[in-house]
From TrEMBL, chain A:
Ranges where the ABC transporter domain occurs: 2-231
Keywords, alphabetical: ATP-binding, Nucleotide-binding, Transport
Molecular function GO labels: ATP binding; ATP hydrolysis activity
Pfam families from the UniProt entry: ABC_tran
Origin organism lineage: Bacteria, Bacillati, Actinomycetota, Actinomycetes, Streptosporangiales
Protein name according to UniProt: ATP-binding cassette domain-containing protein
PROSITE patterns assigned: ABC_TRANSPORTER_1 (PS00211), ABC_TRANSPORTER_2 (PS50893)
InterPro entries hit by this protein: AAA+_ATPase, ABC_transporter-like_ATP-bd, ABC_transporter-like_CS, ABC_transporter_ATP-bind, P-loop_NTPase
Residues annotated as transmembrane: none
UniProtKB/TrEMBL annotation, chain B:
GO terms, biological process: transmembrane transport
Membrane topology, from the record: Multi-pass membrane protein
Subcellular location: Cell membrane
Family named by the database record: Belongs to the binding-protein-dependent transport system permease family.
Protein name: ABC transporter permease subunit
Pfam families in alphabetical order: BPD_transp_1
Transmembrane segment boundaries: 67-88, 100-118, 124-145, 189-213, 220-243
A GO term from the CC aspect: plasma membrane
Keyword Membrane in annotation: yes
Claim: Transmembrane helix is one of the keywords in the record: yes
Listed Gene3D superfamilies: MetI-like (1.10.3720.10)
Length: 258, 260
């Protein structure tokens, strides 16, 4: 459903990403991992239509994207900046639904349902600044869910919460997105997370970022924070991705490839 | 936003009362000729009586109307202009020198010119007050818009909202606390300039006119009494606006508090 063709972007003379090619199938969870400064965020912002890439194309369902595409939602790392402090959690979640042409009642019902899915039904009337970081990021996730996008982009979504909350949110994301059959592109610098969450892990090189590895993750589902992470396949794949991220030559033997 | 608590309010009242008592005692002990400059108690009594004096009330109503209209015109001009200049960087760069040139010109210096331009005194007074009150609202609005987090705007854009929706749903509410502060400052500035223009340019009604007439009758008690009422009005307006800001923009204070 999503296809990147030779996607490139330069800021002045700085080349952030260079001819990125990627195909994502409907319902797939693809994690993009790379060293810091590999142009991960530039890639995501190009897909979201927030910046106009200087080269190449973004195709959604075969059509080139111009501006911000319909049916797309983004969850940013910085929930405190991305949620609106003058609105309650419910109003924050309901806001994008204005684009769906729903009346107030149906917007609120949909927002409430999404908050229930992330376990925040009781906090609907709270303001973001009255919530913990983990709760705020749940609200961001609920906002994306309520919008029911076909493609969900997540930019380091769990990078600003503590380790335990991070695991909870990883599982929450996997659960609700499987339920909705959403396609997810998740950007992270965390090798562990990319293997745990993804159906596929795409590794970007240092800037200018380009695809240096595209590994299928074949781990039994549903994933479990303890059991999945102790599987041999998980450990081997994590090592393989880690090598690629550090720019070392791939070590193909141990990895189960399709 | 300044927060007034019970203890600081009490201290302020004690300080004010203390000064009044000292002045009253000094006057009664013959520190000055109380035939010329009346006692504190006389002035306060006159101020109270003025509130029931029909002649004063006509003037007060006139000044109040001028002030309210001036503030409305100020908001109607400065808020949209500030939003535009805040959002469109090239426009702001283009008019910045003009703003920096016009802003320091004292509004009072324009009174002779404005008198020649308007036959209607109320229009003249409003123009003078708006000229001075415009700047705090304009500058605060521009800074408020600048203060909006780019990510807050991008979030809405990523959901497919256009620039108009982003301005209305993110920029305006996000800048609102700054705009409110600007309006509060403008409210005080407008009081000063309405009374000043009445004093300088004269007219039939207005507190400034009333003070001028009291002065020509050598009634210092009425002059000071009327002046005190203007001051009290200023305090009241400021207190109401601060209370309104604290109520409406709790989120802003909560955020500012969390940041420090």
């Amino acid at each position: 459903m999503l296809e990147l063709v030779d996607l490139s972007h330069t800021y002045g003379s700085y080349r952030a990403i260079d001819r990125v090619n990627l195909k994502v199938a409907q319902g797939e969870v693809v994690c993009i991992v790379g060293p810091s400064g590999c142009g991960k965020s530039t890639l995501l912002r190009s897909i979201a239509g927030l910046i106009k890439p200087t080269g190449g194309n973004v195709l959604l369902d075969g059509r080139p994207v111009d501006g911000s595409p319909e049916n797309l939602a983004v969850v940013f790392q910085d929930y405190s900046r991305s949620l609106y402090p003058w609105m309650s959690a419910l109003a924050n979640v309901g806001l994008p639904l204005r684009r769906r042409g729903l009346d107030k009642k149906r917007r609120e019902a949909a927002a409430m349902a999404a908050l229930e899915q992330v376990g925040l039904a009781g906090a609907a009337a709270k303001f973001p600044w009255e919530m913990s970081g983990g709760m705020q990021q749940r609200v961001s996730i609920a906002r994306a869910l309520a919008y029911q996008p076909k493609l969900l982009l997540m930019d380091e979504p769990f990078g600003s919460v503590d380790a335990q909350t991070r695991e909870e949110l990883e599982d929450l994301t996997l659960r609700v997105c499987a339920h909705h059959g959403m396609t997810i592109l998740l950007i992270t610098h965390d090798v562990d997370e990319s293997v745990y969450v993804g159906d596929r892990v795409v590794v970007l090189s240092k800037a200018p970022g380009t695809v240096v590895g595209d590994l299928p993750v074949q781990l039994p589902g549903p994933r479990d924070q303890i059991h999945t992470r102790e599987l041999d396949a998980f450990v081997r794949l994590r090592a393989e991705v880690g090598r690629l991220v550090r720019g070392m030559t791939p070590h193909r033997n141990g990895v189960e490839t399709r | 936003m300044p927060k007034v608590n019970g203890a600081s309010l009490l201290r302020g009242l004690i300080g004010t009362a203390g000064l009044l008592v000292v002045l009253e005692a000094a006057g009664r002990l013959g520190a000055w000729d109380t035939e010329r400059l009346p006692l504190v108690s006389t002035v306060l009594l006159r101020a109270g009586e003025l509130l029931a004096d029909p002649e004063f009330l006509v003037s007060a109503r006139s000044s109040l109307t001028t002030w309210a209209l001036a503030l409305l015109v100020t908001i109607a001009i400065a808020v949209p202009a500030g939003l535009l200049l805040g959002m469109v960087k090239p426009a702001e760069v283009a008019v910045r020198p003009l703003i920096e040139f016009l802003r320091p010109i004292p509004s009072v210096a324009l009174i002779p010119l404005v008198i020649l331009l308007y036959s209607e005194t109320t229009h003249m007074r409003i123009t003078v007050a708006v000229y001075a009150a415009l700047w705090p609202v304009l500058i605060n609005t521009i800074y408020g818009v600048r203060d909006i987090d780019p990510l807050a705007k991008e979030t809405l854009r990523s959901f497919g909202f256009g620039p108009g929706s982003v301005a209305y749903r993110v920029v305006l509410p996000g800048a609102a606390p700054f705009i409110a502060t600007g309006i509060r400052l403008a409210a005080s500035v407008a009081i000063v300039l309405v009374v000043t223009s009445e004093l300088i340019a004269g007219g039939i009604e207005g507190i400034g006119v009333y003070i001028t007439i009291a002065a020509s009758g050598n009634r210092l008690d009425l002059m000071i009494g009327a002046t005190i009422l203007v001051g009290l009005f200023g305090i009241l307006v400021n207190a109401l606006l601060v209370a309104g800001e604290n109520r409406l923009f709790r989120w802003h204070r909560a955020r500012a508090g969390a940041a420090t």
